[in-house]
Specification:
The chain is built from 10 helices and 10 strands. It is α+β, with helices and mostly antiparallel strands. Strand 2 (about 20-25) and strand 3 (about 30-35) form a beta hairpin. InterPro entries: Aminoglycoside_PTrfase, CcrZ_PhaseVar_Mediator, Kinase-like_dom_sf.
Length: about 260
C-alpha cells in the first residue's frame, strides 16, 4: 500500500475486526485508509455523516483503497448518547433518500424480520439454547413476528454503539463503521440505542427529539429487534471465546426483558 502514497508515508494498522483499516502519516498530514470499502462511503461523505472522503484508488489486483480525512476527536461516552445531536443525526440518516438509493443500487434488499429470525435460529449455539432466558427470547421472537411489520424501511446502521459515534474537535458529530448497513425497520437502530443508553422514562423525550412518538407498535418492534440482535451478539462473542461479553449480554436479556416474570 505504501506505493500509493510514497515512501515518506508511515502506514500502520488501525485495528478493527476486519484488519482492512490503516492510518497513514506524513509530517502533519494524516489519512484514514481502508481496503475495499463499499461505494456507499462516497454518499455518506457527501451527506456529512462520515469524515470527508479524500480519494479512491484501485490497485492492480483489483482492490480499492479509500482515504478519508483524519479528524482529531473522540468517541462518545455512554451518557452522551442522550445528546439531541445523536437523535438528529440518526433521523437524518433514516430520512436520507440518497443513502437509500445508493444501497438499492448496490443490490441491498430489505432485511425482513423473518430473515433476522432465521439468522438467529440457524446461528445460535445449541448449548446456549438450553438457557431459560434464551428459550424465552426465542419464544417471544417466534410468537411476535407476525405483528411487527412497520411498512417503512430505511437505511439502518445496524450497530449504533457509542464507540461508533465520533465527535470531532470542531464539535461535528459523525457515525462511522458502516460495514453492516442495511435496509430495515428504523426500530433496528432506535431500539438498540434506547435500550442500551436511555432510561425508559426518557424514551418519549428522546423520540420527540428524533421526530416520532412512542407507540405500542414501535415499542414492540424495538423489543423484538433488540432481542434478536442481542442473541446474535451473544453467539458472536461465544464463537470469539469472549465469554465475559457473552455473559454480560445474557444478563442484559434477563434484566431488561424477563426480570419481572
Amino acid at each position: 500500500m505504501e506505493h500509493l502514497l510514497g515512501q515518506d508515508w508511515e502506514i500502520t494498522p488501525a485495528g478493527g475486526a476486519t484488519g482492512e483499516a490503516f492510518i497513514a502519516k506524513h509530517k502533519k498530514e494524516k489519512l484514514f485508509l481502508k481496503r475495499n470499502s463499499s461505494p456507499f462511503l462516497a454518499v455518506l461523505s457527501v451527506e456529512k455523516i462520515v469524515p470527508k472522503l479524500v480519494w479512491t484508488k484501485r490497485l492492480e489486483n483489483g482492490d480499492v483503497i479509500t482515504a478519508q480525512e483524519w479528524l482529531k476527536g473522540r468517541e462518545l461516552e455512554p451518557h452522551e448518547m442522550k445528546d439531541i445531536r445523536v437523535a438528529k443525526l440518526l433521523r437524518k440518516i433514516h430520512s436520507s433518500a440518497p443513502l437509500q438509493t445508493m444501497l438499492q443500487r448496490l443490490g441491498k434488499t430489505i432485511f425482513e424480520p423473518q430473515m433476522m429470525l432465521t439468522d438467529v435460529v440457524t446461528k445460535l449455539d445449541k448449548e446456549l439454547q438450553h438457557l431459560i432466558v434464551i428459550q424465552k427470547s426465542l419464544r417471544f421472537l417466534e410468537m411476535s413476528i407476525q405483528t411487527i411489520d412497520c411498512g417503512e424501511y430505511v437505511v439502518c446502521h445496524g450497530d449504533v454503539n457509542h464507540n461508533n459515534w465520533l465527535l470531532s474537535e470542531g464539535n461535528q458529530l459523525y457515525l462511522i463503521d458502516w460495514d453492516g448497513a442495511m435496509l430495515a425497520d428504523p426500530a433496528v437502530d432506535i431500539g438498540m440505542l434506547l435500550y442500551w443508553y436511555i432510561p425508559e422514562e426518557q424514551w418519549p423525550e428522546w423520540l420527540s427529539q428524533y421526530g416520532i412518538a412512542l407507540t405500542d407498535s414501535l415499542h414492540l418492534r424495538m423489543k423484538w429487534y433488540v432481542l434478536a440482535q442481542t442473541l446474535l451478539s451473544i453467539d458472536w462473542h461465544r464463537r470469539k471465546h469472549r465469554y465475559h461479553e457473552m455473559n454480560h449480554l445474557i444478563h442484559f436479556l434477563q434484566l431488561h426483558f424477563f426480570e419481572k416474570e
